[in-house]
Design a protein that fits this description.
Radius of gyration: 17 Å
Structural class: alpha/beta
Strand order of the largest sheet: 3-2-1-4-5
Shape: globular
Distance between the termini: 44 Å
Helix content: 25-40%
Strand content: 5-15%
Largest sheet: 5 strands, mixed
Length: 204
């Protein structure tokens, strides 16, 4: 298979005269507990970050190694989150869009344009308002989105490990809130915690 050009979309933007282009992705849409996180990253065009790829294709160790490298290399980066309680009062799609726009808005260098992972840019109560392009599987097709996917995933995993100390019975450090067999067993035993997404707990 030919190697994917991770800079294709960023270069297209540069050719159109767009200066500050950020990649944007989220992590934690599917778990039963915890916030949804999003990150936005502006990288210097064409910069080489060895091993950069979709966070889901990387080991936890590799993601942790890349995290500070991305932060140091980026022209700007930001991470944002929307809590479980808000996910329940709105919906996960709206929460994802809100988190991504919050991350874009928090960039120290304002983004003129965003490359956004996925095929959705609006939910019922939130939308991406920055000029943008949606890229399906963007986290394995765009360097900026791949960098954002790593920052979002590592930030969320670290938060879940931290909060595991408050709720040790759920073993969040093991499953990070995802609906594993162990997590469902613990939920049935202890019931939901304050950080569980009640609207996700239909199968108990």
């Amino acid at each position: 298979m030919p190697e994917v050009d991770l800079w294709e979309f960023e270069r297209e933007c540069a050719n159109r005269g767009i200066k500050a282009v950020c990649g944007c992705d989220e992590a934690g849409a599917g778990p039963l507990a915890g916030p949804v996180y999003a990150a936005a990253v502006i990288l210097p065009l064409g910069v080489d970050i060895p091993g950069l790829n979709d966070s889901k294709k990387l080991t936890e160790k590799k993601r942790e190694q890349l995290f500070p490298i991305i932060q140091q290399t980026a022209l700007a980066w930001a991470v944002a989150r929307v809590e479980a309680e808000e996910i329940d009062t709105t919906d996960i799609l709206s929460a994802r869009m809100k988190a991504m726009q919050m991350a874009i808005d928090a960039l120290k260098v304002p983004a003129d344009f965003a490359l956004v992972d996925g095929n959705r840019d609006r939910g019922k109560s939130a939308a991406i308002s920055t000029p943008h392009e949606l890229i399906v599987k963007g986290d394995s097709r765009s360097a900026s989105i791949a960098a954002a996917s790593v920052l979002a995933k590592v930030s969320r995993d670290r938060w879940m490990e931290e909060v595991a100390g408050q709720y040790p019975q759920y073993q969040f450090e093991q499953h990070k809130g995802y609906g594993t067999k162990l997590h469902y067993e613990l939920l049935r035993q202890y019931g939901p915690s304050p950080i569980h997404r009640r609207t996700f707990l239909k199968n108990l």
